[in-house]
Amino acid sequence: MQSILKRLLPVASTISLTERFRSGFGATFGIFATGAVAVATVGSGSGVPTLIAPMGASAVLLFAVPSSPLAQPWSIIGGNSIAALTGVTVGLLFSNLAVAAAIAVGIAIALMMAFRCLHPPSGAIALTAVMGGPAIHELGYGFVLWPVAGNSILLLLLALTFNNLTGRPYPHSLKRNPADHKTGDRPPIDRIGFRTEDLDEVLKEYDQIIDVDREDLADILHRTELRSYARRGGTTTCGDIMSRGVIAVSADDSLRHALDLLRLHHIKALPVTDDMARVVGIVTQTDILDKASWRNGKPTIGFRQRLRVSLTSGRAPSGIVRDIMTTPVRTVSPDATISEAIIHLAEEGLHYLPVTAVNDKLVGIISQSDVLMAMLADKAA
Q: Is residue 368 domain-shared with residue 242, that is, in the same domain?
């Protein structure tokens, strides 16, 4: 009996309680707000449906699994619209409801796959168009515009707002954005283990729809491989290899001062600390090259960076480190193994990692070169 239950029940979820609450609250907010706006738009006594049941299923996707390919904006708008058009058309052509319902759902699925907007709740949209009763049938093709398109757009706008405000980028895109060196080389994390071409071949052989974006799947597998390598690595810690005499700057130091420090000490990165030696950011050679402009041999804040700072921080740039530093900054503890540092360096395309102790106080910094030498030492041992 226990073995049967294991086959029937899905694997226990690894999602945190915070994420579960976020998803549930988001769906509650989305459906309530969509319904409220719909009632205010068409009126509760108009006889026109204000909120249709398939929106509940759409809410599950948009708020609980916003990274799913089935939950992206084109999926909900395109899928629901195509399904509604299909359902209304088939309903007009076939008088037998059972036959019309079956044909509408089947054609809707085929069309959604062809137009790359597969959205499971859209099957219910097609079914509703056929079997929704006199109120739906009287709308004819108006059903496509309202309530289908209207509900879908409202719910989508709410999902865009809620997901991004709560830390879930939507429409979905990978968070990892390693530096683009404008060459044909792949990012470091993509150079280990399998290639994306290998994954494409396996997916072609699998020949089934998988509810995960291809790039997400490749990223998950690469990260899994990287952690597997790290688990088999040595026990050397970041505290063992870090540079302790760290040259740092204040966020209020001038760009010229930061550049002078980089040149004087022949280094490429400066942790940015506050009065309590807590790390608040990092400024690198790349930041100075990309975010600063040069006038009379001095680094200044260019128009694009000036506009960016003004919009994001609400203050006028003044040619200081705060205007170009990267924040928040990835840090590691002295007790972290170099294997953990490797994961951060590879996954996020970093070259330096500040090492912080209690209360985020700066105690050192490690570079890719430090990690490489430690790996060679471990290998020799």
A: yes
